Amino acid sequence: QVQLVESGGGLVQAGGSLRLSCAVSGRTRSSYAMGWFRQAPGKEREFVAAITWNGGVTLYTDSVKGRFSISRANAKNTVYLQMNSLKPEDTAVYHCTAYDGFNEEQPNAWSQFVQFGSWGQGTQVTVSS
Question: CA distances (Å), 122 to each of 4, 18, 63, in order?
Fold first, then answer.
């Protein structure tokens, strides 16, 4: 198992930027794929972005393509989510997730995190209009 701690959330105006970080501890020798999900009040948790253990493949939900970028620094056991051109509809609690059996070629690959992933507590992102 791994432990995940998110940071970097906050209040930002529409059009602004934030960078979220997720620090990974525990069984970090495993090759974990990492993902970001978000959950707005009254809504289900939704997939945002994912990255394979070596950074070779990245996945994004359509609504954030061209605005968000996921990356990782394995030497620091950290994954990042750079969020640009933020919109009020991006307001949510953002959760980091990790899964060491991830297969990026599966249809709806993100669902593997929902079924098998470890999760952090989340960090609040609020975008004002």
Answer: 9, 15, 20
Contact 38, 106 (CB under 8 A): no
CA distances from 70 to 22, 25, 96 (A): 11, 19, 11
Rounded CA gap, 128 and 124, in Å? 13
Q: What pLDDT, in 10s, does the model give residues 110-125? A: 999 999 999 999 999 9
68 within 8 A of 83, measured Cβ to Cβ:
yes
DSSP character at residue 67: T
Q: Tokens representing 95?
A: 């959760």
Using alpha carbons, select from 16, 14, 41, 18 the residue that is nearest to residue 125: 18
